[in-house]
Design a protein that fits this description.
The protein has 3 domains: 44 residues, no CATH class; 182 residues, Rossmann fold, CATH 3.40.50; 156 residues, Dimethylsulfoxide Reductase, domain 2 (3-Layer(aba) Sandwich), CATH 3.40.228. Helix 4 packs across helix 10. It is α/β, with parallel strands linked by helices. The protein is built from 14 helices and 19 strands. It binds iron/sulfur cluster (SF4).
């Protein structure tokens, strides 16, 4: 079947690449055009079958197929009966997040993204000490030293090398501090021309290593400092523009301490030269929802807009903790991008605005499943890129019969208001 190539912005990882085209055949099946290659994009596109955008994936109530108005009414009923709902996942674009916020206000819902813990690590470090961060374009055009903290981005951002310009002719030194399995071989393959590479093992764990690097950069502990970190500190001072790249999602429960230590390194360097951090994360709409909630409420996620006003609890309003403690009595889960981002297991009344492939996994008694269009596939939209300053427009590749998250959220809010007025 002949296919039409369309320009595309990919919504499937925090890099939101806009360099590829996608072939859309007459039945609506999607594939990367030509020799373009990204395993994550290719796999994600394959999840949108020719029929998935039609209403062959029906809404489900209690696991049984039904129509959209019935599902909306059932979702409104769940939220109306809840004394403390939780809106989680939040895999939505700007318009979706904007529409979820008034629904959260109307129901007093607590809001937390999938990967909310990693999001909070970065926010805590920012709130406590501030930060110097940079953009993908700045790294590509200016960085002469790039240090990957705790491993290369790998599967989390498959085209990081290309997007950061590490294939370009600019002379650079690339360092992986604390390589993961396979990183040394990968990095060795990135060397060539004016690009040199280096792998430095951890001294103890990542926390200890980055604390030592911060001390070395500040000129402390010189007598006892491991030689490799002393040399890296000297290299950082000598660089014209050093960038430290990390993934908050990999840093674990106390990742904020690693992030703060990286920011200390950057802060010291910026007294005499130029340096910045680049944090890769917040994909699948998490960072976008956080930005939208921050500008609408003045507070980041893990916030409740309830009868007591706004309450922000970065620890207590954690999805897993709230469900385990039975501190919430209904869950609205949003996942428009990632078919694998399923709602956490629970027996709570459940509303899912989800990727069509999630239907089977979400079918159970007490649940409402509404398939939604994915921005960048079946709907237009906007996502913030990982560097947080660039809002990427997403264009629909094909027309779909599914509602987008914003339409679904607005319909549920209207049904809820109708119930309350009746
Ligand atoms: S690197 Fe990320 S944004 Fe770029 S094509 Fe691959 S999945 Fe999409």
């Amino acid at each position: 079947m002949s296919a039409t190539a369309q320009a595309w912005t990919c919504p499937f990882c925090p890099l939101t690449c806009d360099r590829f085209q996608v072939d859309v055949d007459a039945a609506g099946a999607l594939a990367l055009s030509g020799d373009a290659e990204c395993p994550l994009a290719r796999r994600s596109l394959a999840g949108f079958t020719a029929s998935s955008g039609q209403r062959t994936t029906p809404c489900l109530v209690d696991g049984r197929p039904t129509d959209l108005p019935t599902a909306i009414a059932a979702a409104a009923q769940i939220l109306a009966a809840s004394r403390q709902p939780l809106f989680a996942g939040l895999g939505a674009d700007v318009a979706g997040a904007r529409a979820l916020y008034p629904l959260a206000c109307a129901t007093g819902a607590i809001c937390d993204a999938a990967g909310g813990a990693a999001l909070m690590q970065g926010l805590r470090a920012l709130q406590d000490r501030g930060q110097f961060t940079t953009t993908i374009a700045e790294v590509r055009t200016r960085a002469d030293l790039v240090v990957f903290i705790g491993g290369l981005p790998g599967d989390a951002a498959p085209l990081a090398r290309e997007r950061l310009g590490l294939r370009d002719a600019l002379a650079r030194h690339l360092v992986v501090l604390g390589p993961a399995a396979g990183d040394e071989a990968t990095l060795a393959g990135w060397a060539g021309g004016d690009v040199t590479v280096e792998s430095i093992a951890l001294q103890g764990d990542l926390h200890t290593t980055i604390a030592l690097l911060a001390a070395a950069t500040a000129g402390r502990m010189q007598a006892t400092m491991p030689a490799a970190l002393q040399a890296l500190a000297a290299r950082l001072h000598a660089a014209r523009y050093a960038v430290l790249v990390g993934l908050p999602g990999r840093l674990g429960a106390h990742g904020a301490l690693v992030i703060e230590a990286v920011h200390r390194v950057v802060g010291v360097l910026n007294r005499k030269t130029r340096a910045a951090a680049l944090w890769v994360g917040g994909g699948n709409g998490a960072a976008t929802s956080n930005q939208v909630y921050a500008w609408l409420s003045g507070l980041p996620l893990r916030t409740r807009a309830g009868p007591r006003g706004l309450e922000h609890e970065p620890h207590a309003f954690d999805t897993a903790r709230l469900i385990a403690d039975r501190a919430v009595d209904a869950l609205l889960w949003v996942s428009a991008f990632d078919a694998d981002a399923l709602p956490p297991a629970s027996d709570l009344p459940l509303v899912v605005l989800g990727h069509p492939q999630q239907a089977c996994a979400c079918a159970r008694a007490g649940s409402v499943f509404m398939p939604v269009a994915t921005p960048g596939i079946g709907a237009a939209g906007h996502l913030f890129r990982t560097d947080g300053t660039v809002l990427m427009p997403l264009h629909a590749l094909r027309s779909e019969a599914l509602p987008a998250v914003d339409e679904a959220a607005r319909s549920i809010l209207a049904a809820l208001e109708q119930r309350r007025a009746a």
